[in-house]
Target: Acyltransferase
Amino acid sequence: MKTLIAAYSGVLRGTGSSILSALQDLFSITWLNRSKVEKQLQVISVLQWVLSFLMLGVACSVILMYTFCTDCWLVAVLYFTWLVFDWNTPKKGGRRSQWVRNWAVWRYFRDYFPIQLVKTHNLLTTRNYIFGYHPHGIMGLGAFCNFSTEATEVSKKFPGIRPYLATLAGNFRMPVLREYLMSGGICPVNQDTIDYLLSKNGSGNAIIIVVGGAAESLSSMPGKNAVTLRNRKGFVKLALRHGADLVPTYSFGENEVYKQVIFEEGSWGRWVQKTFQKYIGFAPCIFHGRGLFSSDTWGLVPYSKPITTVVGEPITTPKLEHPTQQDIDLYHAMYVEALVKLFDQHKTKFGLPETEVLEVN
Model:
């Protein structure tokens, strides 16, 4: 209002400079408001995914059970019937939706951090691939944005390649959440699913496995570049059985977006985490990010730190129906060496010192 009054008074005095100055002030205020709106949209887009990841499955399960006890019980029966009929769909690659993958909300999600995908080599559409994604972080936000949405244009960077991000099979037993995950091309990380995608779904499939899993998430903290990989060889065995190329992938900044309480080995807290990991498949973490309206408060919104996912050079593997332990060890060693090399080649480009070493546990 003051700006408009200033412009009006400038007209009355016949001072052109006053009018110009008033208009500049007006446009700068409009731009500032737009910038704030953009930032809040980015925060909301990230928060909706975090809440979906943490709560959507449980909340929809409770609502479905409650609906059975109401006058709307028929709706619950119909969905439950559909669930039984559709139970095995996730094991066959799910039901991806290009419309969902291209939602504008994912572009706001990308720009919040920001997240980018770096391609170093072409991928042949006549081959299948297993991407090893490192590190896990708390939620694998880089993996989700880069491979389950088109925000970073994965389909344009790797034309003809269909990415499938693999996650806990238990997520696909949750009503509504399973549909949401499948729409982005997310599938269960189990042998049946991977066998199907690599043997009965043609070529050009890329399965992204967060190799370190729950164990790696327990050591996720800002400033630490460590991967749980030394004894993780199952993905190599699967690659050899199907002749799928191994692709090392490192996400710089994945560990920077959340802070968590790290329990020491032997403590009661670590015992609880490992017990959950053993029997349920995930390890509960005590973590925090920033608040919804302020970066100075604690909350579930991750900190806006850059995440850059670098996709390395494929390691060509032979197809061995019954790979020996020697075969598995050989290609696992090649994979570890390639991952460390990828990290060393790109670390200084993304803010790490030349002396930084990737810790392989």
Summary: Residues 1-16 have pLDDT under 50 and may be disordered. The radius of gyration is 24 Å.
